[in-house]
Every structure is written in structure tokens, then in C-alpha cells.
Write a structure and sequence with these properties.
By secondary structure, the protein is mainly β. Helix content is 4%, strand content 31%. The chain has one domain.
Length: 251
């Protein structure tokens, strides 16, 4: 069948552009190898294949960022957007660090929390690794956690939409008050974990609703640690009714 311009335009209108894949290299030299470095919109740190030897800057908020190699510390020095963050190819742990202002020793007043805006499917896949995100997560697509590893988060996250833990653990990295947005509806799949017990301590959070068949782990305070007896999880921020058939353990 011949496609007239009108038909071709109709097909084009119905298609959704697929996210492109970009692979992180900490120094932008040699073959893509992951590792530590600074991530912003200007530095040439991204290859277009896992074996690339030439690099470009981070291109767009609709593309997927892949982190491979032995792991490392990636310091974000600008607000950035991406569709998905993938750490499943890595063989070690990654940390997405705050902007320290390139000053040592670090001074609290120079630390900047930039925002990573997630779009599209808004998925963070840890693979079997531990991933710590110190930056704030934003965007309107919610957050999906995939992979058997642990995604540690800290900071004030202001994304909107649901939080879904499909596998592994989503955990607080410190005693932050409010890990996820108050109106985000949380679903925890069977076998997955939501942990509010950082370093055997406590973290309190308010969520929109709770559903699924996974596990919630609440922390209890060690003796002499402040006046809080344990973690507090408050649901109902979104005002909807859900059913949770999993387990809640801890204090």
C-alpha cells in the first residue's frame, strides 16, 4: 500500500520516540568503563554503546543513563533529566553525590542538592548492586525500583506519581524525615522491601497509600539515640483506600 503524505503523517503522529541509550565513563577516555567523575550537561562522559571510545555530553531528558564498571562516586554539578537510570551492568556500588562546589575539605554551605528529573517509565534498576542517591528526584512519572539490589535514598524528593518497588529494597540512607513524597501511592511487590531502618536507626515517612504483598521494615532506636522510639510510617496522604497483604516488621 502506498502511503500518502496524510497517511504517513498519521503514522508518525501515533509513534512514540524510543529513549536512546548512553553509557557512563568517569573520565571520558578509552573504552567505556564507568567509575567516578562529574556529571553535568557539558562534560563529554557518555558513549553510545557499552564499548564506545568516543564521548558526547549528556544529551536529553528523554534518554536512558547506563552505569557499568566497578562502581564509583558520580557528582552531579547541575540539574539533569533522564528517563531511566540503569546500574544493572555494574559490578560494584554507585553513589550519585551532591555538588560539593569543588572545595576540599567540604563545607556544608557549598553543598548543592541538584534535581534529577525522571520521565517516561521513570525506572531505577540497581541490578544486584547497592546504589545511593543523595540528589533530589523530581518529575511527574513517579518512581519504579527494579533489580535485586538496594536503592538507598536521602534528601527531599518532590516527584509526583506512584512509587513502585518491583524487586530488591528501597531504603532510607539516614534518619531523614520524609523519604518519599507524601501523596505518592506505594506498591511493594511480593519479596520486595521498603526499609525505614537506616544503619539500625529510624526514619519516618508519609506516603499516599500502601498496597502489594511485600515487606515494610521499621527501625527501632538504639539506646540513647534521641527521644524517638522507632520508625513511623504514615499512610493516607492521597486519600484513597488500598489493601496491603504483606508484612510490617520492627517496632
Amino acid at each position: 500500500m502506498l502511503a500518502t503524505p496524510a497517511v504517513a503523517a498519521l503514522f508518525a503522529f501515533g509513534q512514540t520516540a524510543r529513549a536512546a541509550d548512553f553509557y557512563w565513563d568517569g573520565d571520558g577516555q578509552g573504552i567505556v568503563g564507568g567509575g567516578s567523575g562529574q556529571w553535568n550537561g557539558a562534560l563529554l562522559r557518555w558513549g553510545t554503546s557499552p564499548t564506545a571510545t568516543t564521548y558526547t555530553n549528556w544529551p536529553s531528558g528523554t534518554d536512558d543513563a547506563h552505569f557499568a564498571g566497578p562502581g564509583g562516586n558520580v557528582e552531579l554539578t547541575a540539574d539533569l533529566s533522564a528517563q531511566n537510570l540503569d546500574f544493572s551492568l555494574a559490578t560494584g556500588s554507585y553513589t550519585l553525590e551532591q555538588d560539593t562546589g569543588v572545595q576540599y575539605p567540604f563545607v556544608a554551605s557549598t553543598i548543592i542538592n541538584h534535581v534529577i528529573t525522571l520521565s517516561g517509565t521513570a525506572t531505577i534498576d540497581t541490578g544486584a548492586n547497592n546504589v545511593l542517591i543523595r540528589q533530589n528526584l523530581g518529575g511527574g512519572a513517579g518512581l519504579i525500583k527494579n533489580g535485586l539490589g538496594t536503592l538507598f535514598m536521602t534528601g527531599a524528593h518532590n516527584y509526583s506519581g506512584p512509587t513502585t518497588i518491583n524487586a530488591g529494597t528501597l531504603a532510607s540512607a539516614d534518619d531523614t524525615l520524609g523519604l518519599t513524597p507524601d501523596t505518592s501511592d506505594m506498591t511493594i511487590a511480593a519479596g520486595a522491601v521498603y526499609s525505614l531502618s537506616p544503619n539500625s536507626g529510624v526514619c519516618s515517612d508519609t506516603i499516599g497509600s500502601l498496597s502489594g504483598a511485600g515487606n515494610v521494615v521499621l527501625g527501632g532506636n538504639p539506646l540513647g539515640y534521641g527521644n524517638t522510639l522507632g520508625s513511623l510510617l504514615t499512610t493516607g496522604g492521597s486519600g484513597i483506600s488500598t489493601t496491603f497483604s504483606g508484612s510490617i516488621t520492627g517496632v
